[in-house]
C-alpha cells in the first residue's frame, strides 16, 4: 500500500491541501459543521460503490497523509472509511497490514470529534471481527502492538461494540493450552472485560415466531465445546 505514496499525483495533491490549509483556504477549526464543496465532491467519490476500489485506496492514503485537514469532518468520513477497511480485509490476504494500522491510528486521533453511529453497527462489528481474527503475528512485538491498537480502539468505541463471540470461541478452542491462539484470545477477552463488555453477546430477542437466544444458551454451547 505504500506504493500509493509513490503515485505521481499524490505529492501534488498533498501539497495542494497543505497549501490551502496554511493559507487559510481550508478553515482550521475542530468545530466546523459543513464540508467545503471540494470535500463534498471528494466524499461522494469515496462513498460511491461504483468507483474503482483503487481510486478509493488512493483517496484513503491522501486522507491519512493530510488527516488534520479532515479531522473536523470526522463524523462524515468515519463510516465510509470503516467500510473501506472491511473491503481491504476481504480483498487482501495480508490481514492487519500497515495501511489498515495507519488508518486505525487516524480514526483513534479523531475519536473526540466522532465515534461510529448506531446505524453503522453491522460495519463496526465486522471491522472488530476482522481485527480480532487478524491480530496474531509471528513477531511477538508486532502482535503486542496489534493488541494494544485493538485495546485503544475498544476504549474509544466501546459504546458501539459487541464481543465477537464466535471469533473468541474459535481462537480459544485450540487443544494446546499453551498455544499462541489461546493466549491471544485471553488477551482479547481481558480487553473486553476491562471495558465492561462481556465476552459473549446475546442479541436482542427477535420478534415473530423465531426462538429467542439467551445468554444461558450461548454459554451452554460454549461450555459443551470444552467437554
From TrEMBL:
UniProt-listed InterPro entries: DNAPKcs_CC3 (IPR012582), DNAPKcs_CC5 (IPR045581)
Pfam annotation, one family: DNAPKcs_CC5
Top-level taxon of the source organism: Eukaryota
GO cellular component: nucleus
GO biological process: double-strand break repair via nonhomologous end joining
Record-annotated DNA-dependent protein kinase catalytic subunit CC5 domain positions: 126-201
Protein known as: Uncharacterized protein
Amino acid at each position: 500500500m505504500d506504493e500509493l505514496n509513490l503515485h505521481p499525483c499524490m505529492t501534488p495533491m498533498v501539497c495542494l491541501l497543505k497549501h490551502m490549509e496554511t493559507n487559510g483556504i481550508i478553515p482550521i477549526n475542530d468545530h466546523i459543521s459543513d464540508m467545503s464543496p471540494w470535500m463534498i465532491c471528494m466524499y461522494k467519490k469515496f462513498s460511491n460503490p461504483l468507483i474503482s476500489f483503487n481510486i478509493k485506496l488512493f483517496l484513503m492514503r491522501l486522507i491519512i497523509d493530510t488527516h488534520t485537514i479532515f479531522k473536523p469532518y470526522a463524523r462524515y468520513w468515519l463510516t465510509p472509511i470503516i467500510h473501506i477497511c472491511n473491503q481491504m480485509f476481504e480483498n487482501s490476504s495480508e490481514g492487519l497490514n500497515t495501511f489498515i494500522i495507519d488508518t486505525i491510528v487516524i480514526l483513534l486521533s479523531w475519536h473526540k470529534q466522532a465515534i461510529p453511529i448506531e446505524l453503522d453497527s453491522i460495519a463496526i462489528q465486522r471491522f472488530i471481527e476482522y481485527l480480532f481474527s487478524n491480530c496474531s503475528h509471528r513477531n511477538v512485538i508486532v502482535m503486542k502492538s496489534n493488541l494494544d491498537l485493538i485495546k485503544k480502539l475498544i476504549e474509544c468505541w466501546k459504546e458501539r461494540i459487541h464481543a465477537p463471540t464466535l471469533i473468541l470461541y474459535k481462537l480459544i478452542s485450540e487443544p494446546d493450552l499453551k498455544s499462541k491462539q489461546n493466549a491471544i484470545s485471553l488477551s482479547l477477552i481481558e480487553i473486553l472485560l476491562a471495558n465492561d463488555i462481556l465476552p459473549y453477546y446475546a442479541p436482542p430477542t427477535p420478534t415473530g415466531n423465531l426462538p429467542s437466544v439467551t445468554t444461558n444458551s450461548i454459554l451452554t454451547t460454549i461450555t459443551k465445546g470444552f467437554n
